[in-house]
Specification:
Blueprint: H1 2-16, H2 33-37, H3 47-99
Length: about 100
């Protein structure tokens, strides 16, 4: 959370004071007092919501991974069935052509 807030404060400092050189990432304590005064966290940070979103994201990524594995297995089955059908029709077509 620190890095996100730090990057945001650095960009905000660039827009508030055009003359400040913020090419090096500085901790928020080194920013101008005007910028630091804009952000006061009176309540605790909403970390629980943040962690819920992270858990949902990981759950969805795992679900996508499992679905890809399942699709890969189904594609292998399809190729095997396709080969069997092609060889069956290949044999029957060649036999019917020989007898006609």
């Amino acid at each position: 959370m620190y890095y996100i807030t730090n990057a945001f404060l650095n960009k905000l400092a660039k827009t508030v004071k055009k003359g400040i050189n913020m090419s090096i990432i500085l901790p928020p304590l080194h920013l101008s007092l005007e910028v630091v005064k804009l952000f006061n966290f009176s309540d605790s940070l909403p970390l629980q919501d943040f962690f819920v979103i992270i858990d949902e994201h990981l759950m969805l990524r795992n679900e996508v991974f499992n679905l890809k594995k399942e699709l890969e297995g189904k594609a292998d089955e399809f190729r095997v069935i396709e080969k069997r059908i092609l060889t069956r029709f290949k044999v029957t077509l060649s036999l019917s052509l020989c007898f006609s």
